[in-house]
Design brief:
The protein is built from five helices and five strands. With 146 residues, it is an alpha/beta fold.
């Protein structure tokens, strides 16, 4: 079972990279790989790059401002179901202009991190933290306090 984050743009050295690295190293069961794609002139072109890289059998979750709001336990259940089925997970984070319609259509689920707008570079750290939180919820670890 693999978890891959496909993201437009390259993280530079700094706090965002440190945050991503911190949560990547904490993950045990849901080891997560980050694949970065160049920022393009249009989100249609960025979307084509992302879609070309996706494995065909992967369950795709795209982060989109029109996606559904989820609680951390709901997110953990979603990931747990996929893990139990042995299905690989692909998360997509678009560039500064968001996702193309083709990416939205390909996604099995669209989710968002609230109604606020987040910088696409920062969203990687938020996503990795939520994947880690999901792992701890699934394992019964006390990291997630309710």
């Amino acid at each position: 079972m693999s978890v891959t984050v496909y993201a437009v743009g390259k993280l530079k050295r700094g706090p965002e990279t440190e945050l991503v690295t911190r949560y990547q190293t904490r993950l045990k069961r849901l080891k997560t790989t980050l694949r970065e794609f160049p920022e393009r002139v249009s989100k249609v072109r960025e979307g084509a790059d992302l879609l070309a890289a996706l494995p065909g059998s992967s369950f795709v979750i795209a982060l989109d401002d029109c996606g559904e709001d989820m609680t951390s336990p709901d997110f953990a259940r979603l990931l747990g179901e996929r893990v139990d089925q042995g299905q690989s997970l692909s998360f997509i984070i678009g560039g500064a202009d968001g996702l193309s319609d083709n990416v939205r259509e390909r996604a099995d689920r669209l989710i968002r991190f609230g109604r606020l707008t987040w910088p696409h570079q920062l969203v990687r750290g938020l996503l990795l933290e939520q994947i880690y939180r999901a792992e701890t919820i699934l394992l019964g670890h006390p990291y997630h306090r309710v």
